[in-house]
Amino acid sequence: MTARDVSPSSAADDAVLRVPGRAVFADAQVEDAVGRVERSATLRQSPQLRRLLRHLVLHAQRDGGHALREIAVGVEALGRDPSSFDPKRDPIVRTEARRLRAKLAAYYAGEGRNDPIVIEVPKGGYVPVLRAAPPPGALGDASIAVLPFANFTGDAMREPFCDALTDELIDALARMQGLRVVARTSAFRYKDAREDVRAIGATLRVGTLLEGSVQVAGERVRVLAQLVLCTDGRHLWSQAFEGAAADLGLVQQALADEIVRSLERAGVLPHAAPSVPAPRGTRDAEARDRYDRAPRRNCRPARPASGAPWPSPSRATTPRRWSACCAKC
């Protein structure tokens, strides 16, 4: 496990690693986006910030988004002496990165509000995020559908994990206030379908689609997630995630949570408020696996004693409550 972009929220989340994905934009598009910011009134009088911006963006485009060391940024972008520069004593990289983040925010809030590509440098690192700015009004209805994640593992026994990951994502997104999420039944009609995303979006009446795939390489499971704009099929966001294949039950919920957090950080969700926390399920890998594989129509919590209320859905459907029933199904 490396230190790059690791989610630290829990033991399961620690096993999830966001890894650099393929470049979404062509070199010419990236050069145009950087040039717009460099020529703007916001950065025109800041040559050092312009050099820093260009260095970070071109490094991410060329090297696939691998994390940059602070000492390399100080020497290569800010002209520090490699023989004497010590980031622990000289905070110039952190200081200039904070200034750059503020300048970018001001630029895109003002003269760059209509730029086709938005550049951001998330806190905690020096790897910029480039995302497409959707056309005005394209995301106004704040709606999304999560299509079933494709199983590219070559193992049919992994299919329940792919479906369960899709369910987790639907649940996590549905907790976001102001975001309309298409129901599972409607979304799963497109499992293994090869229809155009624009046609799917029109049928489901949503502005965006979240789709992806699951692969297993050795002892690692790799999940690629993509957010697509339904009006023209444009990719708004793309990111790969990795976790331990031996603990799919534990990694599954962490993957879903990390994907949603990445969508929130990238700012590509359509005008949705932060998600509402939900009760957590079991961390028992065997119980989780039985839950994922069990036929849903036969699994239900035990009927309460006469006159007693039914358990609340949020707790009745957690894997720990289901595990006893699933063992008999």
Give a brief rundown of this model.
The chain is an alpha/beta fold. The protein has twelve helices and nine strands.
Gross geometry? globular
Measured as a percent range, the helix fraction is 25-40%
Output mean pLDDT. 75
Q: Tell me the CATH superfamily of the largest domain.
A: ABC-type transport auxiliary lipoprotein component
CATH topology description of the largest domain: Rossmann fold
The main β sheet shows up as: 7 strands, mixed
Cα-atom Rg, whole angstroms? 22 Å
Q: Under the CATH scheme, which class of the largest domain?
A: Alpha Beta
Which architecture of the largest domain would the CATH scheme give at its second level? 3-Layer(aba) Sandwich
Q: Summarize the helix and strand pattern as letters.
A: HEHHHHEEEEHEHHEEEHHHH
Number of helices: 12
Number of strand elements: 9
Share in β-strands: 5-15%
Supply the number of structural domains: 2
Q: How widely separated are the two ends?
A: 37 Å
Low-confidence stretches: 1-23, 274-280, 312-329
Topology of this protein?
Blueprint: H1 11-14, E1 17-19, H2 27-39, H3 47-63, H4 70-76, H5 92-109, E2 117-120, E3 129-132, E4 143-146, E5 150-151, H6 159-174, E6 180-181, H7 184-187, H8 197-204, E7 208-217, E8 220-229, E9 235-244, H9 248-266, H10 285-293, H11 313-316, H12 319-326
Parallel strand pairs: 4-6, 4-7, 5-7
Antiparallel strand pairs: 1-9, 2-3, 7-8, 8-9
Helix pairs in contact: 2-3, 3-5, 6-9, 10-12
